[in-house]
Amino acid sequence: MLNIILLGPPGAGKGTQAARLQANRGMIQLSTGDMLREAVAAGTPVGLKAKAIMERGELVSDAIVSALIGERLDASAGKGAIFDGFPRTGHQAEALEILLAQRGRKLDYVIELAVDEEALVTRITGRFTCAKCGAGYHDTFRPTKVEGVCDVCGSTEFKRRPDDNEQTVRTRMEEYRAKTAPILPYYERKGLVHRVDGMAGVDEVGAAIDAILDGGA
Ligand code: AP5
Question: Is 14 noted as a catalytic residue in this protein?
């Protein structure tokens, strides 16, 4: 039962690869971004606090996201976990270690998606998802097979994230550089970090991750 972190700046492909691992390996994708967006949509107290912070591209408090992860970890008992967008600060990295240890689990891999930040702006501003089933697409890199129709469920309704505009993306990248990239040395000292070229195609990135998880890289 593997527990892995996918680490990389906004648009690096964490969500894309986490969804793939969930589908292919029966692991559970734990995305704090998705959890927060659900809370915003549902208008919960957490969502009300998080909404404006996310629209600015800044980080939500460590206490809120760590609590969300703790709840979802309990719900994913018995399955491997893919942490997507968590941890994002040193405090969150420490919190994750404790949350896992309390459940008799440990971290196996930290997979860093190495990318070119300028290309990411194009990736993010072209991103959209199916409004019904959540399947992810991109205007250029991953269009639907039939224009305007979801490949997975056939819906014709799609949505774009409010924080996927260039100005907010730049803030999100600054937050990544200032607060998230500095946690890499913490995991390097533990010998857990593996780097993957996140600029390769979706399938190639997936194959590189599979090779790591299967012990071949
Ligand atoms: P979150 O939802 O985590 O956003 P993010 O980290 O900015 O990451 P993204 O979802 O934008 O990118 P991704 O790496 O998943 O890329 P994707 O696979 O979609 O967080 C949003 C906000 O919530 C934060 O700003 C913060 O406010 C808050 N938050 C969340 N977690 C938090 C935490 N732990 N602490 C505090 N605050 C938190 O790919 C992007 C696009 O590129 C897609 O269109 C995809 O199809 C395409 N693509 C993917 N891979 C490739 C490839 N290899 N080649 C070509 N195109 C590709």
Answer: yes
pTM, 2 dp: 0.93
**Res 216 pLDDT > 70:** no
**Comparing C-alpha atoms, which of 11, 65, 8 is closest to residue 39?**
65
The model's pLDDT over 136-154, given as tens digits with 9 standing for 90+, comes to 999 998 999 999 999 999 9
Six-digit token string for 78: 């018995």
CB 29 within 8 A of CB 22: yes
Which one of 59, 71, 73, 116 would you pick to mutate in the ligand 1 pocket, going by the greatest count of ligand atoms within 8 A of its CB? 59
How far is residue 118's CA from residue 54's CA, in Å, rounded to a whole number? Answer: 21
CA separation for the pair 173, 150 (Å, rounded): 29
The Cα–Cα gap between 18 and 27 comes to 9
